[in-house]
Structures are given as structure tokens and as C-alpha cells.
From TrEMBL:
Domain of life of the organism encoding this protein: Bacteria
GO MF: DNA binding
4-aspartylphosphate modifications at: 58
UniProt feature coiled coil, ranges: none
Xref: Pfam families: GerE, Response_reg
Lineage of source species: Bacteria, Bacillati, Actinomycetota, Actinomycetes, Kitasatosporales
Descriptive protein name: DNA-binding response regulator
Domain Response regulatory, first and last residues per copy: 7-123
InterPro entries per UniProt: CheY-like_superfamily, NreC/VraR/RcsB-like_REC, Sig_transdc_resp-reg_C-effctor, Sig_transdc_resp-reg_receiver, Tscrpt_reg_LuxR_C, WalR-like
Keywords in alphabetical order: DNA-binding, Phosphoprotein, Transcription, Transcription regulation
Membrane-crossing residue ranges in chain numbering: none
Domain HTH luxR-type: 144-209
Matching SUPFAM superfamilies: C-terminal effector domain of the bipartite response regulators, CheY-like
Length: 212
């Protein structure tokens, strides 16, 4: 039985980039490009209407920026995972996009196979960060003195589920614990890793070889 193709839309203000990405994915097995948008506002409308598995999102666009679009999709409870694909890896671009709800962040110079792998991972809800972005995020959230206490076995389990994009409710069901207990574990994980949110915890988890 053939597996269902991963559906995606491309949101970028450059027609050449959109054409290139469409051609790349349509020439590869297992992907289906449902549509394109030239700005964030149009991208949000398209994502809500077509319900793709993954939205490939540029950040800096005249017609609505990517961060605002990601936040809008998150607020609307969109099923689609957003994978940022941009030329910018500064803190002012990276951190807001991840905080807004992006599942992953890649740079446009990524090889095509890396991009394919990233889209598959994003479709499964796994966090995807380019090495340059991951190191920036880790250096941003790492604290020099605290954040070195080892995680307990249960905290590792919770972090591994977070890295797969699992919600608190789903984690509670999988581990047979309450959502309140999951939140307590997350609080302890953040404190031990010296971070403030899920994406940063995953980034530090990979950096310290707790994950992977």
C-alpha cells in the first residue's frame, strides 16, 4: 500500500524561489505542493483553506511577515506545521519565529535532501533546526552557572515526547499521568536546562546529547 504524500504550501515573496521549491518537491516522490502564496496574510488564508501538512514559510515579506503569519496560524489552531525557510539566521529572526510556533527553522542554502528530510520531520511534529540556528538558540538560552543538573528518567521521557511535537494532554495519556504532573515535569526540565520554553528545551536537549 502506497503511503500518502506529504502536502505542503510555499509562502515566499520571490516567484523564482516559489517556482524552484515547487519544482524540487514535485520532482521528488512523497510530496504534493497544494499551492503558493507571496505574503504572510495570503499564506495564512491559504493554509487555513487547504490544510497542508507543512507550510514552508519565508520571514521577511512585504505582504505580511512570516512571524505574524506563524502566530496567526498558531492562534487559529491550524493543524499545519510551519517550517521556516529563510536567508536570515539572526536572533531577531530566529527567536520570534520559534516563539510564535514554528516547528522548524532552515536556511535557504540547505541541500535539497536536507530540506526533504526536514519537511518529513516537520510533518511528524518533530523540531527541525539548522546547525547554525540551533547553536544560536542554545547560546541564547544557555546560562553560565545553572542548568547543569541532570534530568531524571521521567523528565527525559517527557522531553523526548516534547521533541516529537506531542502536546501536554498527549504526553499525559502516553505516560499515564495527569496534565498537571506533565506541567510540573516541564517546569523542572526548563529549570535544569536553563530555558524558558519547549523549543529551547529541545534545542538544548540535542546540544547536550540528552536527545538524539
Amino acid at each position: 500500500m502506497q503511503e500518502r504524500s506529504i502536502t505542503l504550501i510555499v509562502v515566499d515573496d520571490h516567484p523564482v524561489v516559489r517556482d524552484g521549491l515547487r519544482g524540487m518537491f514535485e520532482s521528488a516522490a512523497g510530496f504534493e505542493v497544494l499551492g503558493e502564496a507571496s505574503g504572510g496574510v495570503e499564506g495564512v488564508e491559504l493554509a487555513l483553506r487547504l490544510d497542508p501538512d507543512v507550510v514552508l514559510m519565508d520571514l521577511r515579506m512585504p505582504d505580511g511577515g512570516g512571524v505574524d503569519a506563524i502566530a496567526a496560524l498558531t492562534a487559529r489552531g491550524a493543524r499545519s506545521r510551519v517550517l521556516v525557510l529563510t536567508t536570515y539566521d539572526t536572533d531577531s529572526d530566529t527567536i520570534p519565529a520559534i516563539e510564535a510556533g514554528a516547528t522548524g527553522y532552515l536556511l535557504k542554502d540547505a541541500p535539497r535532501e536536507e530540506l526533504f528530510t526536514a519537511v518529513r520531520a516537520a510533518a511528524e511534529g518533530r523540531t527541525v533546526l539548522s546547525p547554525a540556528v540551533a547553536s544560536r538558540l542554545v547560546s541564547r538560552v544557555r546560562t553560565p552557572v545553572t542548568g547543569k543538573e541532570p534530568l531524571s528518567a521521567r523528565e527525559r521521557e517527557v522531553l523526548e515526547l516534547v521533541a516529537r511535537g506531542t502536546s501536554n494532554r498527549e504526553i499525559a495519556a502516553e505516560l499515564f499521568i495527569s496534565e498537571a504532573t506533565v506541567k510540573t515535569h516541564l517546569t523542572h526540565i526548563y529549570a535544569k536546562l536553563g530555558v524558558k520554553d519547549r523549543a529551547a528545551a529541545v534545542a538544548v536537549g540535542y546540544d547536550r546529547k540528552i536527545l538524539g
